Amino acid sequence: MNTKYLYINTIGCQMNHYDSDQIAAVLRPLEYKVTPLMEMADLVIVNTCAIREKAEQKVFSFLGRLADMKRSKPDLLIGVGGCLAQQEGARIIERMGHVDLVFGTSAISRLPRLIEQIESERCRVVDVDMSEGIDEFDFAGNESDNGKVTRFVTIMQGCDNFCSYCVVPYVRGREVSREPEKIINEIRTLVKAGVREVTLLGQNVNSYGKKEGLLIFSRLLELVNEIDGLLRIRFTTSHPKDLSKDLMFAFKDLAKLCKHIHLPVQSGSNRVLEMMNRKYTRALYLEKVKKLRTLCPEIAITSDIIVGFPGETKYDFEKTLELIKEVRFDGLFAFKYSDRPNATATRLPEKISEQEKKERLKAVLDLQDYYTIQTNEALVGSEEKILVEGYSKKQKVVDLHGGRQDFQWTGRTSTNKIVNFVQNDGGIYGDEIIAGKLVSIRIMKAFPHSLWGEPVKAANIPLGFRGEKAHVA
Ligand code: SAH
Ligand code: SF4
Ligand code: F3S
Q1: Are the beta carbons of 420 and 409 closer than 8 angstroms?
Q2: Percentage, residues of the chain above pLDDT 90
Q3: What residue ranges define each of the domains in the chain, with the CATH number in brackets?
Q4: Model's pTM, two decimal places?
Q5: Atom 2 of ligand 3 has which residue's CA nearest to it?
């Protein structure tokens, strides 16, 4: 069989990135090899997102570009998967004459069969069936030979929360947790292939295993913490209403669990939180933040905010700004509210104008910029353990004093802040810097979205770190 090339464009959240790896893995037996060059592709798959209108527009503009490509390459196959595919189904095929396949969020395991059918019959196919439930098959590590240090691992799919603005429960289905054995095996396989950090993914990790009577999430974390060779664990997302004491204690007790939690608050107004169906109050949120910081003072807290939810008054919005000031988040993602099909908030009156949403978004982002830079600046002078992810993609080589050049490395602190650095005068640091290693870096400069540091001189590394004997002068 001849090798064919597959190009995947992933739009959307980490779950889609994980799914794209699985798409590549299930198509490998059909001799499809992933290419980073779209011009080379025999099959282009776009893995779509439906969370906001903007994400939807991104998909349709990409598909528009593919129409030109198909005109000059008629044998090209085009598949649309993911959340927008689940939402729109056959409408995508009707609207876009050049699309061959639409497959939903539960159809990845059926993908080889669908592609074979299209290749042999030259037909167009839609599969958005969700009735078989969780799309569970054994990919463990199939796509893990690409040298990545950090990987996503989905531990649960779907969502049962039905926040009134959100499309996820409709496009990802009901919440289902994967069995702990499958998760642990997958992580072990990834570690064997060189992975040193995993991010466990679920829309609401706190309810992991509850429905199925499996382990609770903090117990799963303990098991992952025991995996030899794995250095760091992260997870996302935790719903504030379900953030439990045992999970808060995990930040204190589990050595490999990174000191960062993404805890989306969405709004600081109780009235809006209720309309959003979030099931917590501003006070409860603030109380949980306080407890987290008491148990783990260095924890970084980030969040999501929606501005311009239907009926959000200036007073409601002020409450959101006040909450941001009170919490002093390490970072924030803020979004303009967007009507989604199925989501119940779409039917609410009192929509906020686009101009007002724009202004509120800017106010949130400007305020947060101040706290982001402050939390970054507070780190200057401190020594941080960084997991080296590889060369910086933005700028591989940097100019140093005296006309020298050096490779620029990048990694993150436990608190999820990006740190860039160079090896620094060859060998000052005890060991060579390589991807996948935890190194000690002194933070020298703070920027809005990253930090600059220097490897800590070997002599400053505490005794025993390099396995050396004491040398007393
Ligand atoms: N499960 C996660 C969120 C996943 S969606 C959680 O509950 O936190 C990521 C973020 O997108 C949400 O936190 C929310 O801030 C934003 N979002 C979701 N639907 C939206 C909509 N209709 N309009 C604007 N932002 C939205
Ligand atoms: Fe959407 Fe709410 Fe579920 Fe998050 S918890 S995915 S915001 S419905
Ligand atoms: Fe993620 Fe977008 Fe789907 S945020 S779950 S890819 S709707």
Answers
A1: yes
A2: 84
A3: 4-127 (3.40.50.12160), 137-258 (3.30.750.210), 264-378 (3.30.750.200), 383-471 (2.40.50)
A4: 0.92
A5: 49
